[in-house]
Design goal:
Length: 152
Amino acid sequence: MRQLSIGEVARRTGITVETLRYYEYLGLLPTVARTRGGSRRYASDIIAQVHFIKHAQTLGLSLRDIQTMTGVKQRDRRETCRQVHEILVRQLAHVNQRLTELAEARETLTTYLSACEHALSSPDAPVCPVLPGYQLQPAAPTESPCCGAASS
């Protein structure tokens, strides 16, 4: 089986060498064999493991969650699955809460946009309806050019 250098793994996965070392330090990736010169040598299956970590992060899972999920080395597969299930249930609740917040934000922005469009279509709209109390004040008359002294 062909072994990969840390640089090659980094290129193939789109993460930095430092990130790979950090993942190994956290236990997200297994400690790998090294050459006599101290270089890490990875089996090709490391690519799938890194892709899993990156995908889990895009789902909003923290490195600690991923560490818990991937670091469970229990013989009881049911217990392992139960722990993963707990993490996923918690993350799904978080995503659902965020979706609710985003739906509310969308509704507010749509209302604001409609109010602006209505004001812009009316030639006599005096103020932006979205910014009551934050209207631009007319520019103050300019004073003479130097220190308030009258110009001659």
